[in-house]
Amino acid sequence: MNDKQIVELYMERSENAVNETYNKYSAYCNSISFSILQNSEDAEECVNDTFQKAWESIPPSEPNNLKAFLGKIARNISLNRLKHNNTQKRGAGQIDVLLSELEECISDSFSVENEIYSKQLSRSINAFLESLTSEKRKIFVSRYWYTRSIKEISEQYDISEEKIKSILFRLRKQLKSHLEKEGIIYEK
């Protein structure tokens, strides 16, 4: 079943929508959740919550890209679960490392909840990503969206870990420069 047909099932409020979504996208959503949480049970719960959230969101939402829509939901639910888990354990972990790598690019002087800023930031980052070569975009997204480790990215693209680190360092500098030019952040 293609995505358009699945979305139509949601719009018709057919319970088959969730089954079809699960069959097509459970592995994809699980890979996102597991890469963030590093725990199979938590990842499985987040995947189930993802499909529940999709059921609650469609309608009124009618996503053009179901895979991206589900990926965003899975990622947000997983990050919230990680935050909850880390609040209990104070274990910091991989997400804190990723956020610290990007903190020089995205100033914390703006409130993340600020809708206008968030939309401007999103558009600007998307424009930045579109300006990259396919390989660099995939490396950046692997690291900062899918939260893959340097080692995993290195193995996936058959590039040394040092080269991956170097590419990511340069991309972060380019992103910071891009955001400064767009007026999203201001040089300190």
> Radius of gyration, rounded?
18 Å
Strand content: under 5%
List low-confidence stretches: 109-113
For the sheet with most strands, the description reads:
none
The end-to-end span amounts to: 51 Å
**Mean pLDDT metric:** 86
In total, the number of strands is 0
Order of helices and strands: HHHHHHHHH
Give the count of helical stretches.
9
What is the global morphology?
A: globular
- Helix/strand-derived category reads mainly alpha
Percent helix: over 70%
Per-chain topology:
Blueprint: H1 3-11, H2 16-37, H3 40-57, H4 66-89, H5 94-102, H6 115-131, H7 134-144, H8 150-157, H9 161-181
Structure description:
This protein has 188 residues and is mainly alpha-helical. It has 9 helices and no strands. It has helices spanning 3-11, 16-37, 40-57, 66-89, 94-102, 115-131, 134-144, 150-157, 161-181. The termini are far apart. Residues 109-113 have low confidence and may be disordered.
Offer a quick outline of the entry.
The protein is mainly alpha-helical.
